[in-house]
Structures are given as C-alpha cells and as structure tokens.
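Good morning,

Attaching, inline, the backbone tokens for the sequence recovery test we're adding to the shared suite. The designed sequence is right after.
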C-alpha cells in the first residue's frame, strides 16, 4: 500500500465507497442525500486542504483522507482530518496508515495539535484506532448524532497534541 496525493482521476474510485459510507449515515454527519458534485467539491477541496489516497500497487484506491486546519484564524494552529476507507478494504490497516500520514502531515506543517470534532460514539473501530494513535476523548456532545439503528448517540471530540 502506498499513500499519495489524490488526483481528480481518483474520484471515480473514491465516489462509490464514499457514497456508500455517507448513505449508511452511521459514521459521518454528512447529508445522506449529498449528490456527487457536492461530495467531490467537499472531499477534493483545494488548498489549504490536502487530500490523499491509499492505493495498492495496481492503483486500486483502498481509502482516502483529507487534512486541513481545524478552524480559521486563531484556531488555525490545530489540524483536523476526515477519513474514508472502502468497506472492502476494512481490517487491512488502511485507516491506521491514513491516520499516521495525517499526523506526519500535521507535524511537518507546523500544527500544534490535531482534533477530530465529530467522532460518532458508536463507531468503536474509529474510536479505538484514534486512541491507539494517541488521541483522547476531551468531550462528548450527548445525542448529537442520529444513528439509523442506535437512535441518538454522542459525538466525541478527540484531541492529540503534536
């Protein structure tokens, strides 16, 4: 697996799994009705956003991440990121590799910390992964996410100093 900068040509492989994940409405607070053009603009945004893909040698996209300042102005010293892994590639270390890449990017870009604003509490795989990479839950907004089967569940804010 190689992680490299995403190109517009990668979108044709990203969109099917991004759509599946967003439509499931289990792990992202994105509109499940989001159309492809909106998703593409959101995910492949230009600078200061950096978008990467994790690919196999044959250029099959296994997952993707985008990284950016968490907030503008006085909050711009804290990074954030979003991650999508093709469900067919689950359990292969793609999320961990993308998370490690995001941390390297944040450090080398001069950020002081990384913060995830909305990690769905029932997304135990993501919560476990981020904890294993040194993030801690610094707060939870109770019932801030409407899960399709679990009902109203919390959204964690996870934070890590760099």
């Amino acid at each position: 697996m190689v992680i490299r900068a995403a190109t517009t040509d990668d979108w044709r492989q990203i969109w099917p799994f991004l759509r599946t994940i967003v439509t499931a409405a289990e792990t992202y607070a994105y509109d499940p009705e989001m159309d492809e053009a909106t998703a593409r603009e959101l995910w492949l945004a230009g600078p200061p956003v950096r978008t990467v893909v994790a690919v196999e040698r044959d250029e099959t996209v296994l997952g993707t991440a985008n990284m950016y300042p968490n907030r503008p102005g006085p909050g711009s010293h804290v990074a954030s990121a979003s991650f999508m892994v093709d469900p067919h590639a689950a359990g292969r270390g793609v999320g961990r590799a993308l998370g490690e890449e995001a941390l390297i990017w944040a450090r080398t870009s001069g950020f002081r910390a990384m913060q995830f604003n909305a990690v769905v509490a029932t997304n135990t795989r993501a919560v476990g992964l981020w904890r294993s990479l040194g993030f801690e839950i610094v707060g939870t907004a109770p019932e801030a996410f409407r899960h399709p089967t679990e009902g109203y569940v919390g959204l964690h804010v996870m934070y890590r100093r760099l």
